[in-house]
Amino acid sequence: MSNMTEVDWSIDAYDYELPQELIAQNPVVPRDSSHLMVVDSLTHHNCIFRDLPDLLQPGDLLVLNNTRVIPARLYGHKTTGAQVEILLLKPVENNCWLALVKPGKRFTNGTTIEFEPNSSFGCDYKLQATVLSTDRETGGRFLQFNLPQGISLINLLDQFGHVPFPPYVTDSQALTEQYQTVYGTISGAVAAPTAGL
């Protein structure tokens, strides 16, 4: 029998209080002046991100998330007029995507959704998707986007999508480019690696 303390793996064990006023609404300027907590086996101390090269030692492993956030939130409506919001999670194949749909329970298989272009682009194209099925693992829906041959949904996201800011970013003045890391180069993420902002 082990003397190890039993670990509480319940999700509630990870709850903590974080006052709203301590949540940054915009990245610091210049971007490399953000706080960096340095933790080793015995101590921890605060530095600034630009100190990182001096902190790394030969043999250290630096893992970099170089993704850029795509405008993965779309707003639309059913043929009945009921409003819908979706968050694209990942492409499946042939313009079929797994997406979280809100409100999800009302969107059964065969439901058609029509999406409105965002206000920053004029667009004559009518973007529609049909709910194919529900993903048991995520509760999301598989959506088949009705696009002409050779057109990919990724190519239309600038016209129809919105960057999915997290719910704790309430500053409506937040700019899309501010929500990208300075080292992000590959588009495809549906949320920013916020620790890198």
Provide structural commentary.
This protein is mainly β and 197 residues long. The chain has a domain at 69-179: Beta Barrel (Thrombin, subunit H). It is 6% helix and 30% strand. The protein is built from 2 helices and 11 strands, in the order ββαβββββββαββ. It has helices at 52-55, 153-160; strands spanning 35-39, 44-48, 67-69, 73-78, 83-93, 96-102, 112-115, 127-134, 141-145, 161-162, 186-189. The strands form 3 sheets. The chain has a 6-stranded antiparallel beta barrel. A two-stranded antiparallel sheet has the order 1-2. The chain is globular, with a radius of gyration of 21 Å. The model has no long low-confidence stretch (mean pLDDT 86).
Topology record:
Layout (H helix, E strand, L loop, with lengths): L34 E5 L4 E5 L3 H4 L11 E3 L3 E6 L4 E11 L2 E7 L9 E4 L11 E8 L6 E5 L7 H8 E2 L23 E4 L8
Parallel strand pairs: 3-11
Antiparallel strand pairs: 1-2, 4-5, 4-7, 4-10, 5-6, 6-9, 7-8, 8-9
Write a compact overview of the structure shown.
By secondary structure, the chain is mainly beta.
**CATH hierarchy, class of the domain at 69-179:** Mainly Beta
CA radius of gyration = 21 Å
What would you say the CATH architecture of the domain at 69-179 is?
Beta Barrel
How would a textbook summarize the main sheet? 6 strands, antiparallel, barrel
Q: State mean pLDDT (0 to 100 scale).
A: 86
Write out the strand line-up for the largest beta sheet, numbering strands in chain order: 4-5-6-9-8-7
- The succession of helices and strands, N to C, reads EEHEEEEEEEHEE
